[in-house]
Amino acid sequence: MFNAATYRATPRDLALIAVFTALTAVLALPTVTISGIAPITLQTLGFMLAASLLGFPWGGASVALYVLLIVVGLPIGAGGRGGLAVLTGPTGGFLIGGIVGALVTGWLVDKWGRTNPILIGLANVIGLMVIVYAIGLPWLGWRTGSGLFAKLTLGFQFVPGDLIKVVITALVVVTVVRAYPAIAKRAPGPR
């Protein structure tokens, strides 16, 4: 069972959370809109990198901070949007799913390690694709008033790009771990 009191963020943890929040904000700005509702961005790449390198719960904290900054009005969401309307709008489920998915991905990467790109990729597919889609697509259907089947078919446009982001994340994590082995040797769980 998760006990928040056992997870104490060091100044280094807080700095890394802030750095990955800023990285995600920068990656979210360039957008391509195909469907007219949900833009394609590199925001999820930021989520994946944060979760995979920071682990549980700090990767999720980075994504949660990013979402909080959007809600309070900073224009750092996809395409430079900000405000509560971003979270309550059609794509808000993807942001909520990103927090949950980053927590799951971080936990899996902590458990499986950061040296095998296939396991890193699998952790990201489970946490930041399956979970994000499972929360984001029904939310999108609910907020737009369209059926779930229509939104599932819409969701398929994101799969190729997200798989490319998974590969990039796995390669970056393995490279960072080779350059900075202390990341791979972090003990999973409470520090």
TrEMBL record:
It comes from the Bacteria. It is found in: Cell membrane. Coiled coil: none annotated. The keyword Cell membrane applies. It is a multi-pass membrane protein. The chain crosses the membrane at residues 92-109, 121-142, 162-181. Pfam families: BioY. Keywords: Cell membrane, Membrane, Transmembrane, Transmembrane helix, Transport. Gene3D superfamilies: 1.10.1760.20. PANTHER family: BIOTIN TRANSPORTER BIOY. Belongs to the BioY family. This is Biotin transporter. It comes from Tsukamurella pseudospumae.
